Amino acid sequence: MKQANRDELSDLKKNNLYRQIRVLKNSDGIHAEWRGEKITLFCGNDYLGLSRHPRVIRAAEQALKKYGVGAGAARLVSGSTTAHEALEKKIARLKNKERALVFGSGYLANLGILTAFAREGDTIIMDKLCHASLVDGARLSQAELRVFPHKKYEKCEAILHKSVGRRKILLTESVFSMDGDLADLKELVRLKKKYKALLVVDDAHGMGVIGKHGHGATEKFSKEIDIIMGTLSKSIGGLGGFVAADDPYVDYLVNFSRPFIFTTALPPVLSASALESLSVIEKETALRKKLWDNIRSIHVGLSEAGFVLGKPESAILPVMIGNEKRALEAFQSILKEGVFIPAIRHPTVAKGKARLRITVSASHTEADIRALLKAFKSYGKKEA
Ligand SMILES: Cc1ncc(COP(=O)(O)O)c(C=O)c1O
Q1: Is residue 31 flagged as an active site residue?
Q2: What's the rounded Cα separation, in Å, for the pair 286 and 53?
Q3: pLDDT tens digits, residue range 23-50?
Q4: From the CB of 107, is ligand 1 less than 6 Å away?
Q5: Would you tell me which CATH number, out of the four given (3.40.50.2000, 3.90.1150.10, 2.40.30.110, 3.10.620.30), belongs to the domain 13-42+285-383?
Q6: Residue 337 and residue 28: Cα distance in Å, rounded?
Q7: Whether the CB of 131 sits within 6 Å of ligand 1
Q8: What is the DSSP letter of 296?
Q9: pLDDT at residue 164, rounded to an integer
Q10: Catalytic: which of 53, 205, 353, 364?
Q11: Which residues of the chain does CATH 3.40.640.10 include?
Q12: Is residue 278 scored above 80 in pLDDT?
């Protein structure tokens, strides 16, 4: 490797921004072992515990026997399966759209949407806290990229007002992945109508968690949002991404979205397991209730212990630390008490905005939550 690359890595270390993969033993997503000690995890996005749900596992086993491990080729090349078709029909129905299309991951879905619908001469207007996959998709598209400060919709409107792009694409997450707060979709729908923009909403962290029926943070506005993106890798518990939209948009993606066309399809086993997960989300509403009880218990417990948190609007509860070195110390302090929450640092969040990002699951027990609160209290005492 070149010296310049080595220097970059050592700079990361100096600035407390170095990352490493930690192998956890015997992990079930909630409990694991780390260096011989039992630990509890509050860092996954499997919000309903569906990756291990007996019905989902059974559906996957059956599909594995039927279809094998992989898809074999891209769907336009080798033909699609009934597993993909059934899943897309279900997603379209839950998202209140005419059609849906699945991708190999949520990251690919975002690249796929933006590179298909935006190009040179267009303007993409996005919230500052949008996920890296949206930023990367926007950059790849070669459209002009304009960023407005987080949820400052008056600034967003000023950009829309001045924009001379051929097509205006308004881009947001519904639930912001590192802050856990919600976009104001009502206001964004108003703006998209006023300025005739295409509204694209990434609902990766809303599906299964938010909405009267758990169909996502977009549930109330699904008809007015042009393109809804989601993933199969968070509350749905597997892997994959999707786009739900009316027929002409999906037809366009099938023909122009390179991350759909030029890569091997999502394995049918993951389509079948995702289909079963969606059925669990629809029928086992107690899971969503349990998730929200857990979110509230943690929010109340941490607030009583003196930690300042934002409103609990999703399953993501960040405890802001600020300085990167202090965030790593906080991670270590909490890990010593048997609770694993990696420090989120730049470039995932801005420099000086490091945090411990707690994510909550319906699978966490009362004992797990007690362990989390105890670990934070002991960290809080050290800091006082
Ligand atoms: C808001 C958001 N969009 C998209 C993605 C990408 O989804 P996936 O993990 O399925 O590739 C993520 C995942 O971290 C995300 O948080």
Answers
A1: no
A2: 14
A3: 999 999 999 999 999 999 999 999 999 9
A4: yes
A5: 3.90.1150.10
A6: 19
A7: yes
A8: H
A9: 86
A10: 205
A11: 53-283
A12: yes
